[in-house]
Amino acid sequence: MVSPTDLSDMIWCPRIPWFKSIGVQTSSSHNTKKGMYFHKTIEDLFNQIRSMLSLHIPGKIIGTEIYLPQNKRSEDTLGLVGRVDVLRQTSDGFIVQELKSCDPPPSGWIYETHRVQLIAYAYLAEIDGFSPVVYGIVIYRDLMPREIEPDIDSIPNLVRRYYKLRDSFVMPEGRYENCRYCSYRPLCSILPRKAKITKEQLLSLRELDLTVK
Ligand code: SF4
């Protein structure tokens, strides 16, 4: 199985599917209780505001937090499965909508990782019978809806590429321009860039705590 978030991680760096396949986690999945409470409070506030804003986006909301596919088998989507924040219906077709709590990119832009994630949801919706998906919308903290046209034909190749990277015998090349902003940096900074490291070799580094702090 693979999720739209996994595809988004792969776009960020091809090494991440490989790391995840051997259980390497980042600190973001180990929030403290206090941190989680703070995050949840802020998230709740943003979600309320965004829900109000959502009322002004075209289309009737036919569901939130919708698991896809729900009408087809995961085999029909190449193992791609996920939960889209909002699914809307207009007279022209369907709209997939994602809510992001991160700082927004410049006006009118969408981060590449979020674009892929949204197109993956559009692909899932289309295959599942919510067709056609006419466009996708991302809403960041600035509450400005950003639209994209869903190029769903690109998704099957991205899914196949994900499996290939995940199952690669040796560690894939990194997308090094992203390292300074990446939560895997503490790990990658101690791994030689060009070495052909295998999963077994990485896992055998007993002194290495595979939870990246
Ligand atoms: S630190 Fe750099 S090489 Fe490592 S996963 Fe992140 S972007 Fe890729």
Task: Write a structural description.
The chain has a single domain (4-212), classed as Lambda Exonuclease, Chain A (Alpha-Beta Complex), CATH 3.90.320. The chain has seven helices and seven strands. The chain has helices spanning 4-12, 15-21, 33-54, 112-127, 155-166, 185-188, 199-203, and strands at 25-26, 60-68, 82-89, 94-99, 133-139, 145-148, 211-212. The strands form two sheets. Strands 2-3-4-5-6 form a five-stranded mixed beta sheet, covered by helices on one side. Strands 1-7 form a two-stranded parallel sheet. The longest helix is centred in the N-terminal third of the chain and has 22 residues, at 33-54. It is globular and about 55 Å long. Residues 29-35 have low confidence and may be disordered. Iron/sulfur cluster binds at residues 13, 15-16, 174-176, 178-179, 182, 184-185, 188.
Structure keywords:
alpha/beta, binds iron/sulfur cluster, Lambda Exonuclease, Chain A, 7 strands, two-stranded parallel sheet, globular, 7 helices, 213 residues
What's the structural blueprint in terms of helices and strands?
Layout: H1 4-12, H2 15-21, E1 25-26, H3 33-54, E2 60-68, E3 82-89, E4 94-99, H4 112-127, E5 133-139, E6 145-148, H5 155-166, H6 185-188, H7 199-203, E7 211-212
Parallel strand pairs: 1-7, 4-5
Antiparallel strand pairs: 2-3, 3-4, 5-6
**Euclidean distance between termini CA atoms:** 26 Å
Q: Provide the list of bound ligands, each named once.
A: iron/sulfur cluster
The low-confidence parts are 29-35
Order of helices and strands: HHEHEEEHEEHHHE
Q: Per the principal axes of the C-alpha atoms, what is the gross shape?
A: globular
Average pLDDT rating? 87
Any guess at the CATH architecture? Answer: Alpha-Beta Complex
* CATH top level assignment: Alpha Beta
Which class do the helix and strand fractions yield?
alpha/beta
Total beta-strand segments:
7
- CATH topology (fold) name: Lambda Exonuclease, Chain A
User: Biggest sheet, open or closed, and with what strands and sense?
Assistant: 5 strands, mixed
Rg is: 19 Å
Q: What order do the strands of the largest sheet run in, or round the barrel if closed?
A: 2-3-4-5-6
Number of helices: 7
Overall structural domain count: 1
What fraction of the residues are assigned to beta strands by DSSP? 15-25%
